[in-house]
Amino acid sequence: MSPHYSPAELADALGLFAPTDEQAAVIAAPPGPLVVIAGAGAGKTETMAARVVWLVANGYARPGEVLGLTFTRKAAGQLLRRVRARLARLAGAGLVIPGALDGPGMAADPVTVGTYHAFAGTLLREYGLLLPVEQDTRLLGDTELWQLAYRVVCEHPRALDTDKSPASVTAMVLKLAGQLSEHLVDTDQLRDTHGELERLVHTLPAGRYQRDRGPSQWLLRMLATQTERTALVPLIDELHRRMREHRVIDFGMQMASAAQLASRFPQVGEQLRQRYRVVLLDEYQDTGHSQRVALSALFGGGADDGLALTAVGDPIQSIYGWRGASATNLPRFTTDFPRSDGSPAPTLELRTSWRNPPEVLHLANEVSQDARRRSVAVRSLQPRPDAAAGTVRAALLSDIVAEREWLADEMVRLHRAAVDDTGTAPTAAVLVRRNADAAPMAEALSRRGLAVEVVGLAGLLGISEVADVVAMLRLAADPAAGAAAMRVLAGPRWRLGARDIAALWHRALELDRGTGRPSGAEPEDIVAQLSSDADAACLGEAICDPGQPTAYSAEGHARIIALGRELTALRAHLDWALPDLVAEIRRVLGVDAEARAARPVSAGWSGTEHLDVFADVVADFAARPGATVAGLLAFLDTAQEVENGLAPAEVASAGDRVQILTVHAAKGLEWQIVAVPHLSARVFPSTASPRTWLTDAADLPPLLRGDCATVSEHGVPVLDTTDVNDRKALSDKIADHKSSLDQRRTDEERRLLYVAITRAERTLLLSGHHWGATESKPRGPSAFLCELKEIIEAAAQQGSPCGTVAVWAEAPAEGEANPLRDQVAEAVWPVDPAAGHRGGVVQGAALVSQAMTRDATVEADDPHGWAADVDALLAERDHTATPVAPTLPPQLSVSAMVELGREPDAAAQRLNRRLPRRPDPHAALGTAFHEWVQRYFQAEKLFDLDDLPGAVDADRQDRGELEELQSAFALSPWAARTPIEVEVPFDMVIGATVVRGRIDAVFADPDGGVTVVDWKTGEPPSTPEELQRNAVQLAVYRLAWAGLHGCDVASVRAAFHYVRTGRTVTPDVLPDSDELAALLDRASGDTAA
């Protein structure tokens, strides 16, 4: 088949820039296997989207025959939205050959783009019974898996010859089990791996000129590690047995099962190759061994030259070896996916960087030379033709504090210059190698008035607003939770000082031993405290019973009383559903408002992303059978240790603050200004020698790895003992083997530096220091920083400068003491959350208080509180005589607003007295349909645990109804359109109430406006009045979208689509913001009447 359209013709029809020659070569490559080496910033996503469009437009495949795989939901969502938008525009441009986009292709059979793990889950769901993997098998997250493995370790019937704790043994079991799954190794193969090594250690003679005193202690310790690994095998076998018994799998077993399925049953690959004619494999350098086996069995082996299989990757950005990625997969692609005649798959390159200025690219190319020599043959990147000049500044400071100060000064200077030149703040990031370096760097920047965000280093549970919610939940559920009580008391909301907290602790001791009893060490007191069921003193009880006010400061006592009331109210709600309980804690604490207030005004109504992610975690946990508050807290405790506090919200470049994150987390992102600090010895590159299989029983021996050097030139080195004839030679071989493993780690550190450098769009700052904070010996510049300095100086000598060395401090004199070790660090506790802008906060709070109390009368002082007691008694009498109708809460959902429009009194009663409701099967059906539509459009939430085997609601009685809704939706005009966004969360202020909700879908209109659509699985309204009452929902959605994107409300349309009947209903009139506020005012007035 000869192509009808060239890449340039399609780009012109779509209103896009014409592709370069190298891009056009990739886009128009004929079907068949192809590997594309795409450098940093080379536009691979744009090129891959253009390749899909070219293949579809020229009749090589229909949209439904396109499969794209990548690693993250975000990347998958970006690729999918781009592809769907281009295909939709292509259909409208009339350039598609007849039949390419006709029929159900765009609607019922859309483009499929997802993650590698989601694809493995789909394979098991469709073909798993061949292994067999049961349909009701459930996927375990890391935390739940750890809890299961911990029980296996603790309940193991035989003694383990180890001095490690059960938690440490559990970590070893899981690490080794994960590597076994990744490399498709069973435990029988693991048992005998060290037999030859043991024989050599015990039978080889001493080396020449050595005394034969037997094996050295080092060799014996190494051998003991191999024996310890064998002792873990029964624990791994028992863990696997329990997982089969409970019908659960983890991510590693899921991918391993998919690889076994693809390898053992060729009919699976045949069917998939018939279903998909275009396959895109993104970030292929980050795939693991089991993923390589699965993909090559399904789509490789020269089985089909008509299959347009394209893998994209960059070997110089392979930085995830520590989590299972195999740097050998990209070099092996050409032979794993050959043509049918056995010839290797062709290789093309995208070498033009559309991101980096020439100066930054020169550094990146020079630094990566060694890495490129030891991987796939990759040529250096080149700048785009019109690339503007950039700025590179390097510095070496005397100590780490001076380095931070220099870097912060540079950031402020660049930030102000950008604002003066363009009127807008630049995007900026500081990329650190170690998590511990983030907080001091943030403090240095904050002191200079820059807005700072530390991204994802502490995990979700370590983010302040989430930690505050968890602490309050824990304190409400467990009064003895001392750490939680201290966070609440000394945190930003209550800020009690040391004196008041000490007084509260004394009160806790009084309550523990009984009020009025002496505090001496009487025998009965000692015996009581030693009792197994003795109660311990706890702040949680003292908060609700603080005792005499004179023990505290006046303000401190008032705050303790207010906190006690909040805790009492929350404890009355502990029987609520977990998501409702957490939402109530968020409301009581006001953390949403605080999180938003911490963002600059330019950030708009944002800031609650991490709180929303935590709410999703709670909702997922609540869906488990028998979920309780205690179980949730235990789960969070384990997640703190196992998953580093759970994954926070996804990172996105932001222009209103300086973001601080690790280099690993920065991959795929870009900023105008990038700083890479602490390029010092033992820091970057990290020289912390991680334990290898020789000293770590949880590490898989290289010989069992699927990417070892015996199967690939670039694989993990293997210990070769074939020509060893004495213990000296054995020791030398082992030392050489360790050196080769160290070199492999150094190569990955160099690739990490390359990733850091290539994040910069305009300005790059590189720095290091001599003295760390506590060392007795200076660190000095790392080899990387010295190399960068040499590159900058060599370029200047050649007449093509690529940067400047701003400062280069002399090395400390021999024997000089570390000047930082004698410095005394001072801190204020409790920490002032408004430090630096306390005056503005106090002034604003005073204005709010003044407005709230403007009509209040000032009462005379009542030192004994008699007037207050009388007022309370009178109020109680009035309340008994005339029941007071409830007032509206400060936060409402959109559905609650609709109910208020229909039945103000009844809805207000329900909002104030929330009772458990009988499960509604129609609501469950609606939820299932919305989840399906979200997957259909393949937006942000591309993959969930519910997508995997066992989570397809096999026992749901309404499964047939769901399939009917899916079929009906596929025939609707909305199915063929590409939404701008789906499932858009929002909260906005209407009147004095915060309204929260989630928009189902938003579509672009030809006139530049948009249409907000809400999917309805029920029947359309029978009367115009009912439709108009429902219009409140669309009115809120319309205002929310306009507010989120700063567009005119008139340009936002809104409609209900009733899926079952296929009708799209648009109300004649939608209430505006004033009318919605009036609705809430009337509801408040009705309830107060």
How many strands? 23
Oligomer type: single chain
Number of helices: 40
Radius of gyration: 32 Å
Report, as a whole number of angstroms, the end-to-end distance. 77 Å
> Which whole number gives the mean pLDDT?
82
How big a fraction of the residues is strand? 5-15%
**Lateral strand order in the biggest sheet:** 13-14-12-15-16-11-17
SSE class: alpha/beta
Shape: globular
Helix content: 40-55%
Biggest sheet details: 7 strands, parallel
Low-confidence stretches: 103-108, 515-521, 526-534, 855-860, 939-958
Main attributes of the structure:
1089 residues, six-stranded parallel beta sheet, single chain, 23 strands, seven-stranded parallel beta sheet, alpha/beta
Description:
This protein is an alpha/beta fold and 1089 residues long. It has a seven-stranded parallel beta sheet with strand order 13-14-12-15-16-11-17, sandwiched between helices. Strands 3-2-6-7-1-8 form a six-stranded parallel beta sheet, with helices on both faces. Helix 14 links the parallel strand 6 and strand 7. The longest helix is centred in the last third of the chain and has 31 residues. The N and C termini lie far apart (77 Å). About 4% of the residues have low confidence.
